[in-house]
Automatic annotation (TrEMBL):
<keyword id="KW-0472">Membrane</keyword>
<dbReference type="GO" id="GO:0046474">
    <property type="term" value="P:glycerophospholipid biosynthetic process"/>
</dbReference>
<dbReference type="InterPro" id="IPR000462">
    <property type="entry name" value="CDP-OH_P_trans"/>
</dbReference>
<dbReference type="Pfam" id="PF01066">
    <property type="entry name" value="CDP-OH_P_transf"/>
</dbReference>
<feature type="transmembrane region" description="Helical">
    <location>
        <begin position="99"/>
        <end position="119"/>
    </location>
</feature>
<dbReference type="InterPro" id="IPR048254">
    <property type="entry name" value="CDP_ALCOHOL_P_TRANSF_CS"/>
</dbReference>
<feature type="transmembrane region" description="Helical">
    <location>
        <begin position="131"/>
        <end position="150"/>
    </location>
</feature>
<protein>
    <submittedName>
        <fullName>CDP-alcohol phosphatidyltransferase family protein</fullName>
    </submittedName>
</protein>
<keyword id="KW-0594">Phospholipid biosynthesis</keyword>
<dbReference type="GO" id="GO:0008444">
    <property type="term" value="F:CDP-diacylglycerol-glycerol-3-phosphate 3-phosphatidyltransferase activity"/>
</dbReference>
<dbReference type="InterPro" id="IPR050324">
    <property type="entry name" value="CDP-alcohol_PTase-I"/>
</dbReference>
<feature type="transmembrane region" description="Helical">
    <location>
        <begin position="162"/>
        <end position="183"/>
    </location>
</feature>
<comment type="similarity">
    <text>Belongs to the CDP-alcohol phosphatidyltransferase class-I family.</text>
</comment>
<keyword id="KW-0812">Transmembrane</keyword>
<dbReference type="InterPro" id="IPR004570">
    <property type="entry name" value="Phosphatidylglycerol_P_synth"/>
</dbReference>
<keyword id="KW-0444">Lipid biosynthesis</keyword>
<feature type="transmembrane region" description="Helical">
    <location>
        <begin position="20"/>
        <end position="37"/>
    </location>
</feature>
Length: 197
């Protein structure tokens, strides 16, 4: 994975079509959580499916309409991460996932937050998203609705239960693998001034 401190953007406008889609996804997170908490599980899963589709659509539109922006590059992973964390916390409140599963996912994001001061010293806001991280995010976004629908406290679909937990553990492993790759890249970045001096 290469560090890329600068990127060519098509525009510096905030209100592009892809960015508006990302803003809508972010604003919908409380509604999505409320649906889970009140037991409207099919509606919540449907909503997540729609916003999962818009996640792909906004990337496609950004490229197609030449509306790639620095803000959009930040909003996309933030929206995905917030959906994952919001979902696992809502499932925790419903007692559908154990607290330690939430802690495993949250600890990874805390670890990455600790890297921010080093990145900022080198003129970076964040590291480029790697393919392992994208895979982990995808697996978690697919697994969490399945875990919800497979729970005895929801629709008790056994196939969804087992598929959800298999994908969920795969997603957690990929999530942490990507996190450790980010740590490695940050350590290499932090050593650069000493090595070049």
């Amino acid at each position: 994975m290469q560090l890329v401190p600068t990127q060519e953007w098509d525009t510096d406008r905030v209100f592009t079509i892809p960015n508006i889609l990302s803003f809508i996804r972010l604003l919908a997170i409380p509604v999505f959580c409320w649906l889970i908490l009140v037991g409207q599980d099919l509606a919540a899963v449907g909503m997540l499916a729609v916003f999962g589709a818009t996640d792909w659509v906004d990337g496609y539109l950004a490229r197609r309409l030449k509306q790639r922006t620095a803000l959009g590059a930040k909003l996309d992973p933030v929206a995905d991460r917030l959906y994952i964390l919001a979902t696992v916390f809502a499932l925790l409140v419903r007692e559908i996932v154990p607290w330690w599963f939430v802690a495993i996912l949250l600890a990874r994001d805390v670890m990455l937050a600790l890297l921010v001061p080093v990145l900022r010293r080198h003129g970076l806001v964040a590291l480029p998203v790697n393919m392992v991280g994208k895979l982990g995010t995808l697996l978690l976004l697919v697994s969490l609705p399945l875990i919800l629908l497979g729970s005895p406290l929801s629709l008790d679909w056994q196939v969804a239960h087992w598929a959800g937990w298999i994908l969920g553990w795969g997603g957690a492993v990929a999530y942490w693998t990507a996190g450790l790759l980010y740590v490695r890249e940050t350590v290499l970045l932090a050593r650069e001034p000493r090595e070049s001096s």
